[in-house]
Amino acid sequence: MTKLNDSKQTLQLLGIAALNEMQEAAVSNIVQHKNVLLLSPTGSGKTLAFLIPLLEHLNPKGKLVQALVLTPSRELAIQIEQVWKAMQTGYKIICSYGGHDMPTEINSLVEPPALLVGTPGRIADHLKRRTFDPKGIRLYIFDEFDKSLALGFEEDMEYITKALKPEVQKVFVSATASIAIPAFAEPKQLVVLNFLKGRDEAPTVEMHTVWSPEKDKVNTLYDLLCTLGKVPVIIFCNHREAVERTGSLLAELGIANTIFHGGMEQMQREQALIKFRNGTAQYLIATDLAARGLDIPDIDHIVHYHLPSTNAEFTHRNGRTSRMNSKGNVYLILHEDETLPNYLPETPPTFSLKLHAPPPAASEWGTVYLNGGKKDKLNKVDIVGLFIQKGNLTKEELGLIMVKDHNCFVAVKKSKISSLLKLVREEKIKGKKFLIMEAR
Q1: How confident is the model over 138-163, as pLDDT tens digits?
Q2: CATH for 365-438?
Q3: Where are the domains of the chain?
Q4: CA distance 77 to 143
Q5: CA distance 165 to 178
Q6: 205-335 belongs to which homologous superfamily?
Q7: Is pLDDT of 29 > 90?
């Protein structure tokens, strides 16, 4: 079992040289069994800040769930699960969320995990079904808890909290300072670790206004993307209908993109993020669901197609680019009739669009899907071996490889996908044949 005194080995497994100041402070206080409110910017490493000390709370002889992490979204829950598995702790984890097969989760809980991660609605459902005993939980973590409250999970969170022992240690995690812990969860004593103080966004985020002559901003968005050229961009809309419409209209104008919102099936959302991360799609059009907690690579450009109603969401959106002291650019597409929200005291400087800029070049990458994963004992080495030895690819023609529990996604140069699929169609991996196709 990996323990806190083996944290250097854990960091090596994660490819991290050392903990940052925020993580060291969080680890120190959580290990001492203190109730903690951890405030730190998006992208600063808060997940690791509570997972490393969480190990110290686990007893290898424990027969019940020992730690519980609540998250506002499935994506964040899955991301925490992935980090935990990468740490190679030896302790079982179960990820529980709406849209996941309930009988499968119930069956997994027959042998309780040391760590249970999930969304408030699904965890509350399990408690009502009595599929696990909460009496063994000693550490209770609310990740992005303000977002869970904003999404209407307060009743479920209160139900879960009352099911736990009163003395359970609590850790609240957020990237927003102006928040209040609800009365049902507030501990008597609380250590506040505020790493948002003194964070000056001016040097790290450069704001621009892009003026749209029409209230329908799609053509202006198109011109902006042409001006920026071939670079990854996240475009935020306020509603899922707007996300879908904007994505469709951009596609009609020759700008390939992928969309992401809460109305999509889990697999669709997962594939959208994978294609954005591996470079298949350079443009991600999304609601605020993509504003925090997701494993999205550092990017330089954020576009507000619509401005959010609150400063908190505006900050979180912008945090996708100003991560860990990196510089970023934020573009506000505005029509002259629009009124700025109160959190923007003045209009940012105007950004000039290039006249007749050519469309950005299409991505050279595509995504190949394979219907087997970790549960089939597959790993990245297996995929690389098959695609290079049997598919005649070079290492340069292979990009990011993501191996999930039941499937794999591989970035491959578009020009090679057709020949690759023909060559590997009848091949087996570890004696088993899998479906291999281009992800759509």
Answers
A1: 999 999 988 888 778 888 999 999 99
A2: 3.30.70.330
A3: 4-194, 205-335, 365-438
A4: 9
A5: 28
A6: P-loop containing nucleotide triphosphate hydrolases (3.40.50.300)
A7: yes
